[in-house]
Structure formats: C-alpha cells, structure tokens
C-alpha cells in the first residue's frame, strides 16, 4: 500500500503550499480520506499513513468497515442522511456534515441525548443553487441555524458545501469564498452552541483553491485512493 502513503504525502505537501500561499497555518487544515467504495484494507493503509479523518457517504458501508479497523480515526458522515437512520449515525460518527433540515437535526438531538452524547454537526449549504441537490440555500442558513442551535445535544461546528460539477474554476472559487463569508456573518450572530469554526469544502480537483479560500477540512477520495469502481452500491 505504499502508493497510498505516497499519495497522502503528495496531498499534504500541496495542502501546505496552498495554505502558506494564503498566509495560513497548514496545521489548521485537516485531511479527510473519503473512502466510498474503498476496501477496508486500503482504508487501514490510509489511517496508518496518518490521515486525520475518514469520511463515508453511506451508513451501512461505514458500519461494515468500522468493525474491521483496529486503529479508529475520527469518522465523519458526508452523505445524505435519512431521519430514520439517525440513531445509527449518532452511535458511529464523530461529525455529520450534511444537516439541511430541522427535522433531521431534531431526530439526531433526540438520539444523541439518549446516548449522553454531544453530536458535532455541519450545516450543508447549497451554494450553487442546484434544485436537485441537498443543502439549504445561503439566504436560509441563519434561520436553520437559529432553529437547530437550541438543541442541546448538538453542536453546530460549521458549514459544508459541494460546488456544482459544471462550475468553472472562477465560479468554484467564488462558491468557496462566499461560504467563508457566510460563516463569518453567522458567527457574528454569536448564537450559543454554534462555534462555527469549521469549513468543509474542497475535493480532489479543487482542494487547493478551497484552502486558499478558508477551508479547514478537505475531502479527498480519488487523490488518495485512485479512481473508484464504475459501479458503486448506493446503500444508505
């Protein structure tokens, strides 16, 4: 699995360069290895190579891998989450990136309370205005935050976005910059239980740009594990 270690070293070097170019401390940016359709053995190799976080899109896939990993890093959920799976998600994940509706937050809060846990979450923001994609519109983010923040077993750690795949580089950069500005605006509200210190944005093809615009978590799949199989089981 030396190729995985080498790719991680390359990604970290590029992360550091992008951070320094933006006047940021590279140590403040976390690397997530996105392990959708990746075998447990390859995920374990990435963990051994020092990734900070493993990110999963599908709950059942994460459950099957978690049981095989001896070294358990922070495990984050980055896919669409159904409310009826909230109890399983709270047991498994350190952070859930895809909160875009009060009903899901309320269910997560109830399940976290039953476990005596404070569940870290991110609000998913649909910065590209795609009607078919998850995420709340930027204009509705403050209202969603105000609805969720009083749920005492949740902690709103920040925001997440995925730019539309058809955006060009300039549009993608603007998407990231606007998410950063939105987070700053929301932070000024000083809403309790919402530190808003994390920005999850940037993937294999644009993470350097995201870092330059303020990302604190970058989500790298192909850049670490290579191209995924053409057919992926959509089990949630």
CATH topology: TIM Barrel
- Which residue ranges are poorly predicted, with pLDDT under 50 across at least 5 consecutive positions? 231-236
Total discrete domains: 1
CATH superfamily: Alanine racemase
Order of helices and strands: HEHEHEHEHEHEHEHEH
Alpha-beta content class = alpha/beta
Shape assignment: globular
Fraction of helical residues: 40-55%
Rounded mean pLDDT score: 92
Rg over alpha carbons: 17 Å
Major pleated sheet: 8 strands, parallel
Strand adjacency order, main sheet? 7-6-5-4-3-2-1-8
Distance between the termini: 28 Å
Oligomeric grouping of the chains: single chain
Secondary structure: number of strands:
8
Our estimate of the beta-strand percent is: 15-25%
CATH classification class? Alpha Beta
**CATH architecture term:** Alpha-Beta Barrel
Count of alpha and pi helical runs:
9
How would you explain this protein's 3D organization?
The chain is of the alpha/beta class. It has a single domain (2-225), classed as TIM Barrel. Helix content is 41%, strand content 16%. It has helices at residues 2-21, 40-48, 59-66, 86-92, 102-115, 141-148, 169-188, 207-212, 222-225; strands at residues 30-34, 53-56, 74-77, 95-99, 119-124, 154-160, 198-200, 217-220. An eight-stranded parallel sheet has the order 7-6-5-4-3-2-1-8. β5, α6 (141-148) and β6 (154-160) form a beta-alpha-beta unit. α1 crosses α2. The longest helix has 20 residues, at 2-21. The model is unreliable at 231-236 (pLDDT under 50).
């Amino acid at each position: 699995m030396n190729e995985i270690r080498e790719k991680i070293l390359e990604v970290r070097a590029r992360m550091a360069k992008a951070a320094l170019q933006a006047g940021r401390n590279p140590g403040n940016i976390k690397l997530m290895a996105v392990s959708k359709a990746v075998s447990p053995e390859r995920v374990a190799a990435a963990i051994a190579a020092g990734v900070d976080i493993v990110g999963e899109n599908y709950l059942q896939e994460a459950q099957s891998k978690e049981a095989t990993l001896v070294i358990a890093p922070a495990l984050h959920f980055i896919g669409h989450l159904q409310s009826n799976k909230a109890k399983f998600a709270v047991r498994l994940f350190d952070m859930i990136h895809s909160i875009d509706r009060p009903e899901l937050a309320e269910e997560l809060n109830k399940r976290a309370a039953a476990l005596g846990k404070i569940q870290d979450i991110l609000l998913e923001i649909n910065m590209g205005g795609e009607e078919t994609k998850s995420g709340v519109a930027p204009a509705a983010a403050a209202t969603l935050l105000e609805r969720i923040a009083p749920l005492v077993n949740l902690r709103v750690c920040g925001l997440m976005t995925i730019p539309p795949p058809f955006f060009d580089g300039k549009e993608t950069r603007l998407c990231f910059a606007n998410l950063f500005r939105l987070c700053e605006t929301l932070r000024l509200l000083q809403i309790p239980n919402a530190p808003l210190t994390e920005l999850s944005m940037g993937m294999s093809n644009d993470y350097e740009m995201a870092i330059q615009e303020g990302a604190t978590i970058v989500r790298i799949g192909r850049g670490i594990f290579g191209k995924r199989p053409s057919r992926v089981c959509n089990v949630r």
